[in-house]
Amino acid sequence: MNLLLAQLIPFFAGFGLVYHQTVYSRFSAMERFALAFPVGQILLTLTIFLTNAIFGNINILLINTLLIVMGLGSLVAGLPDRNIMPEERSGTDCAPPRTSFSHTAIHIALIVLVAVLLGLVFLTAVTTPILSYDGFAIYAPRSFAIYQESCISHELLQHKLPHPDYPLLIPIGEAWTALMIDDWNEHAVKIIFPFYLTSLIFLTVGFLNRHYGPVAAWSAAALLLLTPKIASAGYSAVCDFPVGVFILAGVVTLLELRPGNQRGQILLPAILLAGASWTKNEGLPLALIVLCVFSTWHPERRTWVSRLRPGSCDILRLLVFGACVVPWWIQKTILGLGSDMINARTLRLEWLLDHIDRVPTLLRYFSSEMLYSGWQGCSAGQWLSGWVMFWLALILFFCSQRQMQTTRLALVVLLQLLLFFVVFTITPYELVYQLRTALDRMLLQLFPTAMLFTFMVFFTSLQSTET
Amino acid sequence: MQHVHQKLWPLFIATIFFTVTAFATSYPIFLDFSNGDTSVLDTNSQKRCISADKGIVPALPRSSQWKLVIADLPPFQLLDKPYLILTVMADDPNPLSINLDWKYKYRDGGSGSGHIATRSGYLPVLESHDIVIDLRRSFHGVMGQPDSISLTFATTGGNHTFPLLSSLSFASPDTRLMLTERWRRITVSDPLEQPYVVFILILSVLAIIILSAQTMNVTIYRNKKISFFTMQKIMVFCLMLIWSLQAGSILFSRLDDLMDRLMSPRQSSGSIRSRAYGDWCKTVFAAAEIIPETETVGIVTSRSDRKTLYRHLASYLLYPRPVTEDINADTIMMIDYYGMTSEAFKLITESGYRFLASVGGRNFIFTRTPSVESPLTEQPLIPKDPVITVCNESHRRHNILDGDLSTRWYTGHPMKQGDWLQVDLTEPQILSSVRCWHFGYWDDYPRGYRIELSSDAVNWHTVADVDSPFIAPGYVQASLPPIPVKHLRMIQTRSHPGCFWSVSELEFFTSNETGALK
């Protein structure tokens, strides 16, 4: 029961906020549920982090109360205003378009398949321990320490455990479950990961369903769930996966919430993208790329200058994002927790030029991971041809169709890939070791967004009609 | 045509990019054996070199196939020991399989082929592993002297197996005699060429399709034309179909795994592993209560994958006690591969550590000095011609007193209440304690036991009754009253659904105190 409550209470708070933000939007109930979990996890993290900073410990009762109040307050505040006419509500028409895919039998079969696959992931999650190296060697000890001490102590962050500069969303999420059930149970604490996977699937289905119909949406969900890297991320507690979910959620909210809907387009994407930077250090630049692309890339405008000019909403969103991220950065600055990889030494042009000879090696490994691992003849690789399809979709996209939203998505994924390329170029550690241990996990952070782009391009192609 | 160019530029750029990448990242290499040495890691280029700046032998990606062409082969008869040695190194304990096949060519164009060697199984982690090819034997029956041989070096393994081809040399395994005549040219073909080729091929097909669809409507049947949009749809549909077929194969394999798991639940060791994780934390907590804060604690684990975790957790849980893994590097290496053997145990205890606890039979806690009890004040006693009887006679009861920790007696069934063993001494002895080892059979420690003494084997008196000893340091030990004992019986008082009760050795200790059996 407590295990359930540990997930339900943050979920409720998240749902309240999501409902408040998206009440006039086109979001379906499925998307709201999908967004509620990650938003709830961020609210939980921020609440625990701030109350711990104030009171010096984690008070379960206080945090539960705060979360419930947050959820209830947002729900009440978010109830639709009766004075707003239905036609003014931008999100009232959620009916999916009629497409050539609308076959009920296939639709139902796909739903059953996705449900079975999700069930398998949950089953595997609760019957296996934490499997990923980062999950058990870096994050689990921190979660355990937070659970053991019922607080986030400076001593803990500074001295005793490795990588003290890593953000705390996952350790707090795991420790919260342990605190609620009052036991350190490896199976129970990693239950958040299948929930992240469920969020990803529901979000993808909700979004694609609205644009391309249910069969396309559920096919995409099945393909995602059958991708070994994604399915295993749901139970192996690999902490890069939630970053991918947060980035995708941020991107989807930015794509869907229209400029007229002030409420939704500022707070929700900002919070979701802040979640990425609370999960891993690389989440911050990834989130900034998303924010910058959506703030400064307006292809619908006429002149180049106006295309690159951010609006007031964009600046506000950036400020909210900063406000969500800043507590952790203050803590890091106070405690002097610096990154061993990205620092003043490595962020110099001379350093980059000194290591430019790594580019061929990087190209080898990137292409090995994206092409070779994904395309081993006819047999399925770890990415299930996902990356190969992404590159083909990219080419197809530039060849035939260039819509504003998909252009932004392509830009986001390409810039994020470039970021990782640069990071690997300047890493002070042995390059091959880094590539072999981290590249697939880094790509996992981009994979959900890349797949959304791929599906959008493919389904648009399949639906396109000759004019 | 302008329209076509507008549509096709991304495709051209992508094709050029991947072609250039394919060329830029493939590297035929030249290995210099004139100085003859095993490879070193060049810290500047992060590449593995045979000697200085001449040759590179890159790390092999998992499940890859490499082709090494060794040209200008020296006459075998000039070599004292004509061995070709490929030294590989695995950085992960997953099983690895290496297959070596070769083709040879003569200068005049003749050729042949054959299989050289297969190595499979668990390679020692981070330890050089030589695959020695005896060229004379391999080429036995081949007429003349081949000019070049081409080796196909294929590896398959688990998800995290990255075998490193760390050196390649002509030498004997013991002398590593190198060639000095001239340089031997070796080219290593790139395993990535294959996906590049596939990908470039796909791009080319894509280009042709789009080009043909853009420039002209393609006639497919009886003057029926296919338009660009239809072509595009067909192409995307085919891609989706391929994707779905791959997904289908994954689905079947996953269902297969599920069936396996359902059919044989014991194979799923997840819960056992998890329990070990939890028990480990609890054990370290328990240890922290009895180890003084100034003690140095040694953590040894055969769980290579979790070593870092345990060290970090131990550092946290035992703080401020210093935690070290550096008990004895050789021993730890041995434990990594073979588990805790009595030799490893001996090495650790000889280096001044005292065995404190084991968890799950894979993780061990040592402390620098004895702090829990002090058995060293007692003298071991070797009884003369003792008679051992046990509840289950068929499982080598003589191992109980053979002085060898690596052999054992075991119940042969999951331990249950009432399992017993009895030692009858030929004459009464004064014992101070008895130690029952389960060393090497870590999970088989008695979950609860009772020790009874008797002078006539009829009337038994309980002198120890221990329930669920939490820390299981390879043995359980019970103090005995200083009285003459002729018959000693140890009885199991608890059960376990899966573990035997194993006794690898029974030790008796004596002191100078005396007493009378009441």
Biggest beta-sheet profile of chain B: 5 strands, antiparallel
Whole-number average pLDDT of chain A? 83
Multimeric status of the protein: heterodimer
The total strand number of chain A stands at 2
How many separate helices of chain A? 21
Indicate the percent of residues in helices of chain B: 25-40%
Form type of chain B = elongated
Low-confidence stretches of chain A: 90-94
In short:
Chain A has 467 residues and is mainly α. Helices cover 73% and strands 1% of the residues of chain A. A two-stranded antiparallel sheet of chain A has the order 1-2.
Report on the architecture of this protein.
The complex is a heterodimer of chains A (467) and B (518). With 467 residues, chain A is mainly α. Chain A is 73% helix and 1% strand. Chain A contains 21 helices and two strands. In chain A, a hairpin with a 2-residue loop joins β1 (375-376) and β2. In chain A, α12 (240-256) packs parallel to α14 (283-296) and α13 packs parallel to α16. The longest helix of chain A is centred in the last third of the chain and has 33 residues, at 431-463. Chain B is of the alpha+beta class and 518 residues long. Chain B contains eight helices and 27 strands. In chain B, the strands form eight sheets. In chain B, strands 6-5-8-3-10 form a five-stranded antiparallel beta sheet, with no helix packed on it. In chain B, α1 (2-25) packs antiparallel against α3, α3 packs antiparallel against α4 and α5 runs parallel beside α6. Classes of the chains: A mainly alpha (467), B alpha+beta (518). The interface between A and B is large, with 68 and 68 residues.
